Amino acid sequence: MSKIIKPTWQSDDGRICLYQEDCLKLLPQLEKGRVDTVLTSPPYPGAAMWGMEEDVLLKLNLSCLEFCLEPLRENGVICWQIADVPNGNHGIITTTTTTTTFAAVNLGLKIRGQIIWDKASSNLVPLCFMRRPIVPSLTHEMILIFYKGDWVPREKKSGLGKYKGLMTQSVWRIAAERERDLHVAPFPCELARRCISLWSLEDEVVIDPFMGIGTTGVACIQTGRKFIGIEIEPKYFKIAVKRIKGCLSLGPGNYHRKYSFMGKKGLSLLEDDE
Ligand SMILES: C[S@@+](CC[C@H](N)C(=O)[O-])C[C@H]1O[C@@H](n2cnc3c(N)ncnc32)[C@H](O)[C@@H]1O
Questions:
Q1: Residue with the nearest Cα to atom 17 of ligand 1?
Q2: pLDDT above 90 covers what percent of the chain?
Q3: What fold is seen in the domain 9-272?
């Protein structure tokens, strides 16, 4: 799928190509217009888990958004999953969703929608709960939907299946999954399946430049899409390969079955890695 770099791992049929790389290095090497849909969740600014300054993370986010434009085909869609998080002890909220939206418009992208991902969390203690004004706990994140070029209506019979009703809903209630044991910030596979089903067609190419443990890849297999995944961290890349291999090993027709590579038990499988 790439014109220069060989994938670090690819499936036998070449439909899944994974790169252990810095996405800012790899994206410029992908063929122009090769990608139909981008679905990703960058390490967002303000989240302490990344151990990086807010401005460095914001630069990484915005550079990646810009670098996605060339490989993305005309009329392609970008699903950008981010959040505005309370930053530091004083509960000041980051402005990542707004900044990203302005940056996207400046890059010539059109906005096609915003999904609120309701994380179905309960009983969270609000930050700074003893002081006023309080900062509400973060129980939602956002998926920004951007569009490249002019809107061209596409095939209507696109196999939306059970996701058809979602076309009229901008709030998705999806609980986090147990893959949380494997990564600090994965999104649920259900979230990825919905985005892929709504904004791409079968056999099209979906890319995730911050693929983490490969959730988007698993969702691509389950929905019959091709996938390009990029991850810089070796330990997450390794898990992504395992999960994707595990899903493929179920065989067509069974991809939706839950396979056992989950949780701490799944982590032990990494020990006998080839
Ligand atoms: C929010 S997580 C994505 C999680 C993913 N959606 C999943 O479900 O596993 C962001 C990921 O981007 C990776 N990352 C950070 N900088 C990167 C870069 N320059 N190139 C590629 N990956 C990077 C991090 O290691 C992390 O795994």
A1: 232
A2: 62
A3: Rossmann fold (3.40.50)
